[in-house]
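QUALITY CONTROL LOG
STEP: pairwise intake check
CHECKER ROLE: data steward
CRITERIA: each record must contain a sequence immediately followed by its structure tokens, with no blank fields

ENTRY 1 OF 2
RESULT FIELD BELOW
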Amino acid sequence: MYPELMSDARELEASFGALLDQVNLVKNRTSVTELSGGLTNRNLAIESDGKKYVARISSNSSALLDINREDEYKNSIIAAEAGIGAQVYDFLPGKGLLLIGFINGKTFGAQDIANNLPRVAKSVRQLHSAKPFVSEFNMFTLQKRYLDIVQSNKFIYPDKYLDYVDHVADLKKALAVLDEGTVPCNNDLLPGNFIDDGEKIWLIDYEYSGNNDACFELGNIWAEAFLEYDALVELIDSYYGAHRPEKIARAWLQALMAKYGWTLWAAIQASVSDIDFDFRAWGGEKFDLAQSQFTSDLFKQSLVAVATK
């Protein structure tokens, strides 16, 4: 489903060698290989002086996605200090390079998420217990910014997208009733951002990180793995250590809002990204799911449940 950009070493050196030479830790590199899976960045595994690193290299086009690289750097350090994110070694401001430690382990797929929900919940709680991030993340705010970008640049987005504005207003109002504030969240935990070293599950990639509703994080994890509803119940129960119907409804609604917002993210990427990936199809799938859920009985039921303790 995700891109597999596996360029050879010579091509990578030609493209990124001069940039990598600005980082002292990898000047003596003996190997450079590209990692698959990035939807915004090029991720390079680098061996240098007997150690292994990952260089995350972003393009200028990511500026339209409302990513603040300084915040990503600072939040990545906080996640590392909390023992849940990779160690941060270097950052080149304005040049799109973040150097982090390589975590040796299994990169998850969707089925791995399904098979490890209690462990996933434990790792997410560890992140959410860290000190606050330096930035905020709110999908309602971000969705509006993305819509402005898409419309002002005349990018293509789904014809019926604006048919659900009232649904979003109802959703936002319902979430406000039992709002419990924010915690430091990754906000983009696709299955590939979980790495299992055999003892614990690490969480990587903090470019969309910010303080947010914990249930957005949990709902988005579930949605990005395309799991059944029962899996969401297990994830929420594991996270809270009890059965919390209002939290299950909250996570489901936040996951729906995530689909609606990420649809526009895909519309922007389809227009500006140089990554070989069908962003339009990816976004179309998100919107199709959002449409079906906005018009479902579960949507109506969740609006009530999320406000009932």
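ENTRY 2 OF 2
RESULT FIELD BELOW
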Amino acid sequence: MNFLAHQFLSGNNNDLKIGNFIADSIKGTPPDSFGPGVLKGIKLHRRIDSYTDSHPIVLRSIKRLRERHGKFAGVVVDICYDHFLAKNWKQYYDDELWEYVNGCYALMLKHKEELPARIQEMLPYMIKGNWLYNYRTLDGIDRVFKGMARRTQFDSNMSSAMKDLWMDYQEYEAEFTEFFPEIRAYVQSLLDDPDFK
């Protein structure tokens, strides 16, 4: 799951959305200065990642990419799954995708000063390139892969990830379609648990 799915899985809770958005840039124990709702969002992000990374359906997707992308195969699948969420958005959410992502951008801009420095630096590029909205197209995720290839210090083969995905595109989409209801149910069970804070 990448940025779009993490936002979606946060529901309509702004603190959860912020925490989920910044979680990858927070190493170790997050500071209490974030507040309980944002801290819960960081924890939620980590639980989503842990569940996703060990799920048999996701591991099937990763296995197909492992030979060409090594340790980056999971990252490729995360972006691929965001693509299928964006492409099939109306199956999962009533609002239009562009309305939803503009709301996400507006929320992050409103709280920009509270975000970690790395996220503050990335946010203008995300908005200018409209990453979340452009996940819906193959060209959009191809640009994401090529951008990541430029920023990766190691040979990740990210620049050719779109070609690799295209070879088994229907299988990846079927795997996403099978997996997404399961991750939604898992997240809902966490949010319904009064001990999950």
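INTAKE CHECK: passed for both entries
DESCRIPTIVE NOTE, ENTRY 2: The chain has a mean pLDDT of 94.
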